[in-house]
Amino acid sequence: MRTTQNKTLPLVLLFAGSMLFAGRAAAQDVTIPVETQHNAIVLQTDAEKHLNMVYLGTKLANSAEYARISKMYRQADDSGVQNDVYTPSGSASLGEPAITVTHADGNKSLNLVYVNHTVSKVSDDVSLLVVTMKDPVYDFEVKLYYKTYYKEDVTEQWSVIKHNEKGVVTLNKYASANLNLKGNTPGGFWLKQYHGNWAMEVQPEEARLTHGIKTIDSKLGTRANLYEHSMFAISMDKPATEDEGKVLYGALEWSGNFRVDFELDVANNLKIIAGINNAASEYHLKPGVEFTTPAFLYTYSDHGKGDASRKLQSWARQYKIVDGNGSRLTLLNNWESTYFDFNESKLAGLLKDTKKLGVDLFLLDDGWFGNNHPRNGDNAGLGDWQENKQKLPNGISSLVKEAQANGVKFGIWIEPEMVNPASDLYKAHPDWVIKQPNRPEKYFRNQLVLDLANPKVQDFVFGVVDNLFTKNPDLAYIKWDCNAVIYNAYSAYLKKDQSHIYVDYVNGLYNVLKRVRAKYPKVPLMLCSGGGGRVDYGALQYFTEYWPSDNTDPLERVFIQWEYSFFYPAITSSNHVTDWGKQPIKYRVDVAMMGKLGFDIVIGKLSEDELAFCQSALKNYDGLKDAIWHGDQYRLASPWDNDVASIMYVNTDKSKAVMFNYLVNNRYGSGTKVPVRLKGLDPNKKYRVKEINIFPGRGSVLGNDDQTFTGDFLMNVGINPKTNASHTSVVLQLEAI
Ligand code: DGJ
After folding, report:
1. What is its EC number (predicted)?
2. Which helix (H) or strand (E) covers residue 186, if one does?
3. In the chain, fewer beta carbons within 10 Å around the N or the C end?
4. Which residues pair with 45 in a beta bridge?
5. For residue 191, what is the domain's CATH number?
6. 466 is in an annotated binding site
7. Per-residue pLDDT at 28
8. 19 within domain boundaries
9. How far is the CA of 414 from the centre of ligand 1 (A)?
10. Same-domain status, 575 and 662
11. Pocket of ligand 1, candidates 198, 528, 549, 600: which has the most ligand atoms within 8 Å of its Cβ, to mutate?
C-alpha cells in the first residue's frame, strides 16, 4: 500500500479531520487512498463522518486528486444512494447492510462513524490499514482491516466487531467486506459466477446485473461449495476478455456457509457485500469479546481476466498455500483401481507398480480402517480409525516400510470430520455428532458430521492425524476428504447458542488444521471434498493442493481445470490420470500434466507402449514442472469458444515454456487451422520448439523443419500445434537457446 500523507503522521489524511481532532470548527473530509502497484481503493468521510468507498480502480497518477472524486458523485448520492464502507442497518443507511445487530437493550439501529485509522508495514510488499468506526450512541465498534499486497495488487479485507454494552449483543449479519463500485460504467456490471454439483464442479455463467439484489450463497455447512462458489468476477462495462477489460475478482476465505450480495442501486452503483452467511446464524457477542470475520480476497485488473488471475495465482503461491514455491509429489492412487477391495498382497503389487511407473508416492485411499464395522463400503466404519485387521494384519507401518523398500513414499486417505452410524465412535459418543435430538437422522453418503464446535471433537480429529504421523513418522502425504453436508444442524455442546453452529464448526476445523500445521508444517495435504466441494483459500492456507473434481474424464477436466485456474495456481490442482472418459492415455496424461500430476489406473492393464509413454511423460514433466508449478499461466484459446483449447505456462525468467493443446470438439474437420499466438515470452529470445509426449511410433506434428523462432514471432504470428482428430492433444515445449 502506498499512501499520500503527511510524513509525520502514520495516518493517511489528505484533508485531516476526524473525531480525533475534535474541537475544530468545521470538520473536513478524511481521504484514505489504499494503493497497490496498479490499483487504488479510496475511502472518504462525508459531512456526517460516515466513511464511504468512493473509488476502486486503476490508481491515479496524481494521488492528490483522490480527494476530489466524491464531488463528482454528490448529486447522485444525495438522491438516496449511499456507499458506506460497511453499511449498518436501522439508521440512515437504507441499502443492503453489511452489519445488522440487536443491541443489549433490544434496539436494532446501528450508526457507524469514522474515528481514526492507522497504516502499518508488515513487509516491503505488505501493508495493513485499520479503520476504526464507532456508534455515537451505543458503545459498539467495528474495525475494518485492509491487508494489501502491493506487487500482486491483492487485498484481503475483514472486520473485527466489539462492544461494551451492558449485556449480550446479537450480530444478525456480519459481513467481511462491503465494496462499492461506482456507476460510471455505461455498459453496466457483468457477474461471472460458478455453480455445480458432484462431478460437475465450477460451471460458469456470466450475465449483466440488473437492479436490485443478486445473491450467491451456501447453506450446506460443510462441503459448502458443492452447489455454488463464493468466488466470482465482476467485469465493468462489458465482460472482460482474457487480455482486455476492467475486472474485479473476489472470493471469501471461508470453508462454510457464505453469502455474497450484489446490489445495483438507482444510480447504477454496485455494492458487493461478502461474508459468512447469516442464515440461521445470529451470533451472540459478550461485552469486550472480539468477533473476527473471515477475509474477503479481491484483486482488480484493467487488463482482463488473464492478468487478474495471474495476480491471484502469484499471491497464492507467495502468501497463502502451504509451500507455494516448493515442490510436490507425483503419485499413484488406488481409489479407482480397487475401491474398497484390497489387501496387503494387492497393495504390495501396487507399490511395485508405483516404482515401475516412476512416480514419487503411493496413496492408499478409503477402506483401510474399521473392525467392528469394517469399511468395505461407504456405509460403515467412518470414525473408527484403526487398521482393518483382515485387510491389513500388519498395519499401516508395514506398508510404509514396504513402500520404502520399493523406493517410493507412502500417503493415506482420511475423512476425520465424519462418522457412520455404523461405527464404534457413533455408539461411544452420540453427543459428538451433529443431529437434532428429536428428529430422524438424515444422511448424506450414509454418514453424519462430527461437531467440531466441541473442543473434545477437535482433539479427536487432531488425534486422527497426529496418531498416524506418530505411529508412522515416514508417512509422507495425507488426502483429507469431506463427503457430507450438515443436515439437522444441532450441537449438544453449544446448548443455548445453537445459531453459532455453522460458524463455530468452521473455526473448530481451522483450529484443528492450525494444530496440524504447527506440528507438521510442510507435509503435503490434499484438500478433497467428495470432489471439489471445499476449494477455498480459508482451507487452502493449510493445504498444499486440492482435488478439483471426481470427474477425471479428461475432456471434462479441460473445462474444470480451466475455470479453477482463474483463482488457483496449477501447483495446487491435483490431476489424476484415470479410466474415466474415452480419450487415449496420451490425452489423459497431457491434461493431467496441466497441474500436479498423479495416476489412478491399473498399471498392469497398460500396454507396453502405454506404459513407456507414461514413463517418458513423467520424465518430460520433471523438466517442465518448474514452469507449470511456479511460472505464469496464459490462456491462449478457450475450450468454450474453440475446437482446440490452448494453455501455456512460462517460467519466471522466460527461458522455458510449455503449450498444451486439446481437441475439445471432435466433429468433422475440427482442429487448429491457423497458428495460435503465444503469450508471456521474451520477444528478443530465440526459442526452440519441440513436441513432447509423443506416443511411441508416431512422428512429431511439427515435422522436420527448423523449429526455432523468436519470442516476437511466436507472440505475433504464433505456431500451429496441428491438433485435430488424428492428434487430439499436442504438447509443445519451448526452450530459449
Ligand atoms: C471422495 C473422493 O473425492 C474420492 O477421490 C475418494 O477419495 C472417495 N471419496 C473415497 O471414499
Report:
1. 3.2.1.22
2. none
3. C
4. 51
5. 2.70.98.60
6. no
7. 74
8. no
9. 10
10. no
11. 528
Ligand 1 atom 11: residue of nearest CA:
366
- Separation between Cα atoms, residue 289 and residue 163, nearest integer Å: 7
End residue of a domain, out of 278, 294, 320: 320
Q: What is the pLDDT of residue 71?
A: 85
Give residue 80's pLDDT.
Answer: 57
Residue numbers of the domain that contains 413: 331-631
Environment class of 516 (CB within 10 Å of its CB; exposed 0-12, middle 13-18, buried 19+) = buried
CA distance 613 to 608: 9
Is 483 close to ligand 1, i.e. is its CB under 6 Å away? yes
pLDDT at 470: 98
Residues 653 and 546 reside in one and the same domain: no
Domain membership of residue 233 (yes or no) is: yes
Q: Which three cell numbers stand for residue 179?
A: 465494496
| pLDDT, tens digit (0-9, with 9 covering 90-100), for 370-412 | 999 999 999 999 999 999 999 999 999 999 999 999 999 999 9
- Does residue 600's CB lie within 6 angstroms of at least one atom of ligand 1? no
pLDDT above 50 (res 10): no
Q: Looking at the structure, tell me whether residues 179 and 55 fall in a common domain.
A: yes
Q: State the pLDDT at residue 704.
A: 83
Can you tell me which atom of ligand 1 is nearest the CA of 528? Answer: 3
Distance from C-alpha of 262 to C-alpha of 215, rounded to nearest angstrom: 6
- State the distance from the centre of ligand 1 to the C-alpha of 625, rounded, in angstroms: 26
Do 643 and 622 fall into the same domain? no
Give the pLDDT band (50/70/90) at residue 43: very high
What is the CATH classification number for the domain harbouring 585? 3.20.20.70
Q: Which atom, in ligand 1's list, is nearest to the CA of 378?
A: 11
Q: Which residue minimizes the CA distance to atom 2 of ligand 1?
A: 530
Distance separating alpha carbons of residues 624 and 569, to the nearest angstrom: 15
In a domain, 729, yes or no: yes
**3-state DSSP assignment of residue 251:** strand
Give the tens place of pLDDT for each residue, 468-505: 999 999 999 999 999 999 999 999 999 999 999 999 99
pLDDT tens for residues 549-605? Answer: 999 999 999 999 999 999 999 999 999 999 999 999 999 999 999 999 999 999 999
Q: Do 263 and 278 share a domain, yes or no?
A: yes
Q: What local confidence, expressed as pLDDT, does residue 19 receive?
A: 34
Q: Can you read off the three cell numbers belonging to residue 332?
A: 499413484
Domain count, the chain: 3
Maximum Cα–Cα distance for the chain, whole Å?
87
What average pLDDT does this structure show over 509-537? 97
Local confidence band at 224 (pLDDT 50, 70, 90 cut-offs): very high
Closest C-alpha to ligand 1, atom 4: 530
Q: Which atom of ligand 1 is nearest to the CA of 529?
A: 3
pLDDT at 25 over 80: no
Model confidence, pTM: 0.95
Are 133 and 234 found together in one domain? yes
Q: Is 615 in the same domain as 640? A: no
| pLDDT score at 330 | 98
Q: Which residues are catalytic?
A: 481, 550
Q: Which three cell numbers stand for residue 383?
A: 470414525
State if residue 364 touches ligand 1 by the CB under 6 angstroms criterion.
no
Q: In sequence order, which residues have a C-beta less than 8 Å from that of residue 316 and are 6 or more positions away? A: 324, 537, 540, 568, 569, 572
**CA 642 / ligand 1 centre spacing (Å):** 32
Looking at the structure, tell me whether residues 204 and 299 fall in a common domain.
yes
Give the pLDDT band of residue 20 (cuts 50, 70, 90): very low
- Domain boundary among the residues 265, 293, 320 is at 320
How is residue 722 written as a grid cell?
496441428
Least confident of 41-50, 96-105, 142-151: 41-50
User: Which pLDDT belongs to residue 636?
Assistant: 98
| CATH, residue 726 | 2.60.40.1180
pLDDT band at 29 (very low <50, low <70, confident <90, very high): confident
Measured from the Cα of 365, ligand 1's closest atom is: 7
Neighbours of 623 (CB within 10 A): 13
Q: Say if 116 falls within a structural domain.
A: yes
Rounded distance from Cα 534 to ligand 1 centre (Å): 13
